[in-house]
Amino acid sequence: MKMSNSATMGASKRRLSSRGLGGVLREQRAKLYIIRRCVVMLLCWHD
Fold first, then answer.
1. For the chain, how many structural domains are there in total?
2. Which residue positions in the chain have pLDDT lower than 70?
C-alpha cells in the first residue's frame, strides 16, 4: 500500500507542474466524489 501511495504522490506532483493547482484540485474532488458514491452504495446495499 505504501508503494502505490508514494507512486501516486509522485504522479500528483508531476501533474501539479503540468496542469496547475486547479486541475489537481478538480481531480481530487472527482476522486472523493467517486469514493463517497461507492461508500453510500455499500452502506445502502440490500439483498
1. 1
2. 1-19, 47
